[in-house]
Amino acid sequence: MEPRALVEQAVIPCLQVILVVLLIPLVIAYLQLVERKVLGFMQARLAPRRVGWHGLLQPIADAVKLLIKEDTIPARADRFLFTLAPIVSVVPALLALAVIPIGGVPFTLFGYEVRPYIADLDIGVLFLLAVGSLGIYGILLGGWASNSKYSLLGALRSGAQMISYEIPLGFALIGVMMLAGTASLVGIVEAQKAAGWWYVAPQILGFFCYFVSAVAETNRIPFDLPEAEAELVAGFHTEYSGMKFAFFFLAEYTNMIVVSALVTVAFFGGWLRPFPNVRALDWLENGWVLLVPLALGAFFGWMVDQRVGGGMRFLFVGGLLGGLIGFGIGAADLFGVATASAPQLAGAFWFGLKVSFFLFAYIWFRGTYPRYRYDQLMDLGWKWLLPMSIANVLLTGLVLLLRGGGAS
Amino acid sequence: MLRTEEMEINMGPQHPSTHGVLRLILHLDGETIAGMRPVIGYLHRGVEKLAEHRTYAMIEPLTDRLDYVAAVSENLGWCGAVERLMGVTPPPRAEYLRVVLAELQRIASHLLWLGTHALDLGAMSVFFYTFREREMILDLFEAFCGARLTTNSMRIGGFLEDAPRDWLERVRHFLKIFPGRMKEYEDLLTKNRIFVGRTKDVGLLSAADAIALGVSGPPLRASGVSYDVRKATPYSAYPEFEFDIPVGKNGDTYDRYLVRMEELRQSCRIIGQALDRMPDGEVKAKVPKYIKPPPGEVYHAVESPRGEQGFYVISEGGEMPYRVRFRAPSFGNLQALETMCRGQLVADVVAVIGSIDIVLGDCDR
């Protein structure tokens, strides 16, 4: 193999893997801060603001606390499995990130071609489903190895719940694969570009089934029975502390990111801008140049508002300033003074925006809904989501057949 | 055939959703409750015995600590009992102020119940919303008597002092904003499919069972029995106000929720009437400095937020009562827990405990 190909096909993916593994804990730490801030906003309270400016260093403090905390193993627990469980839980979650494409267009760095994903598997969707269902072993093992009744009950609930919801999860994605004619995640996005619409439009039922099942699969409210603190203390991770607990935590949030990314890729056109085929909206491709400074300005303005407490004055001022800066960059780009056009960055922006929206939806649910009961959860999964997702597959097949068969 | 056995699981006394130090020994068949045994007494302080060695005025702070989330109702009951024993009638302004305080306390207590009940079911935000409003009521108490929880607000024969100058206006302000805030809670819960699914037909209690087990208060009314001490044996200024007693149909957790929500509205209605017709004048009747009720006995009951709170006092004519007996509504309501929970799932136990709204300080005394 010539050295160039070696670097492009082996060294760079390895570096990407290291980057993802290093970056994800940090991203999750801050995702958790965002969650606490958003929940605080929804619940008429302030959320962390002691450590660092507006609590911006809170995640670091939390991480340090978890690291130096005593790592206890209950006396009668199975020590080997007890240690193994958090690892089994976090590795598949991180593994799933390998096939998530942030953009579609490769870019060059120091003369080498870098693709904005680690791997583009032909069976990407299947890989995600397969890896995703491995995580449950961690939970079952952890709950069993703790040798505690609460942990065991929590783990059993988890097991039943995740297995039940994996089926509609898979069926919901079949519709997308039928439309796209491929199971590669990059291929699915490209098919949406070719088709000219996001698959959420023809697959609205599939999207609904997928997202509900995915929330259940990640054990979040309103489906967070395994860790229902009101009944089971903390479910399967009752006995865990320190870094072992942090690993379960990491796995849960990584799964949230994976699910949000997969929704984005499969139903919301991945890195494509809204209405990818409407020429009149071409400016949206670089719309991020305007939108990002605007949002940042408004956000910082809002933070100042919170501190000063004077209505929403600074929010508007900040938004206006940011908007002007963005407008300036955009105008400079338009008149050829400078170039801000980079399809890779635009793709990453749209992808990030959509993923953020679904992550926000997770937090939103948490601020709004009560929790399902175990049997109601099973009812919902087997009696509603499963038939609906199967109907969706049949319906998609029928439409494809009537339109002349084959993938479109 | 697999060998199956019931699992015995211990819930509490440090469990997050047993609302205090209640311990439940659950027998589980899978996740179904096959049996349950409440273990109480972790908060027993011997208040009734303590009361035998206190003067009548010194017992009032003890009543604060019975039902510590509804101290005003306890104060009202104790003062009412001693006043009846002595044949003293507080002046009308004092009675009206007492009603305002007691109904504010009912709202505060129901808000605490609503928040924790919703939190037990996983709805987090309601908890913060209700505490925001409860905080306003506690601020009102603080302005009135200096304390927020253990108010010790009343004196035998009325009050120590009149309400602070703009206090009644502040209560009116609270009444103005509270209905809007109640809509916020109801938007999140009343028609929420998950909430209804978690509470409807859960923890059923028939009217006959409720009466047989000595249940009182909202759980009794939710089972369809229209019994409210404020109407049945009126005390203080309650006969002068118009209000309805909300009654449920099925006696399930959802009905108990609806009954309490309606009680919040009725409490606002009573406070509104009391503010509109607030009489002027003294707030304390002529009471001797050393309270020595004539020999005799009295049973005086009030409708606390949790149910019928009774005070049975025997006097031998001395400075201290011969014997005091507190009828705790939480104790009676807790008796119904097993009837309500049998055959339900573990998750329902949490919903049912939340819906009977026990306070262990009240139950254990």
Characterization of this structure:
The complex is a heterodimer of chains A (408) and B (365). Chain A is mainly alpha-helical. Chain A is built from 13 helices and two strands. In chain A, helix 2 (58-68) packs across helix 9 and helix 3 runs parallel beside helix 9 (242-267). Chain A is globular, with a radius of gyration of 23 Å. The model of chain A has no long low-confidence stretch (mean pLDDT 81). Chain B is mainly α and 365 residues long. Chain B is built from 15 helices and six strands. Chain B has a three-stranded antiparallel beta sheet. In chain B, strands 4-5-6 form a three-stranded antiparallel beta sheet. In chain B, a hairpin with a 2-residue loop joins strand 2 and strand 3. In chain B, helix 3 runs antiparallel to helix 4, helix 4 packs antiparallel against helix 11 and helix 11 (253-276) runs parallel beside helix 14. The chains are: A mainly alpha (408), B mainly alpha (365).
